[in-house]
Write a structure and sequence with these properties.
Length: 290
Amino acid sequence: MSYLRKDPANYPVRLLCQVLNVSRSGYYASLKRPKKVTNDSDKTLLTRIKRIYAIRRGTYGAKRIAKHLKTSRKARIVNHKKVARLMREANLKATVRQKKATKQVKALAGGYVYENLLKRQFEALHPNQKWVTDMTELIIEDKKWYISTIMDLFNREIIAFQLSDSPNQDLIEATLREAQKKRKLKSLSGVLLHSDQGSVYRSLRYNQLSEKMGFTPSMSRKANCWDNAVIESFFSQLKVEFPCFYPIINSATFQKNSLSYIRYYNTKRIQQKLGFASPSAFYKDYKKAS
């Protein structure tokens, strides 16, 4: 029969399973089972990969694990493609952030709207030149928590992280004060601070704070989250990775654990944009060189 001369890859799975007398569910389950690594060198490497993967609670992919292997005490240079292959064979998958769907929102009338001075230039040559800020909300045990942060684009460090049960001006000012204290600045003169067009950033009080503290406000264009993509990306990472480290989340422990995550993010979590260094390590290297 002519159909028997076809490439086996072109046969439907249902027919092949019927010929081989196996169930389709069993076939698909076999695809997900880890493959047995027989090479001794690969076995040793896979053991180290699994250890790093476990320590980072499944949040590290092949590139970060390959960099970790290179810089660890028992340094070993491995191409990230090989790490990816071994992870694939062992069925190790990094926690992946979902792409954020954009939505159109109507700008509220009134308030101050500032020019977009950042213009998606997310790189800074020195600390305290370009900061980005934003606020997000989380619902924990039917209670809303609001998170306000500031990131320095120089080393992608979270230099301020504040929690509140109300998205008010006090939360924004507390975030600004924390960032100023963290960087030991007498004033914020020379700092470009970029935000979206949220009501708290368009308020009279925020305008007064900019004049009093000395920073220069900058704003994303209306309904354009990409103008503040770096801090948006951080919030996405926070929401995906936090449950990996702290799976039991309740109001009593959320504040303590969130601060622990920020310390991990700043001091341990390596970033490709920083040459696979953590924000703190990148900042320290800059201080030593200057």
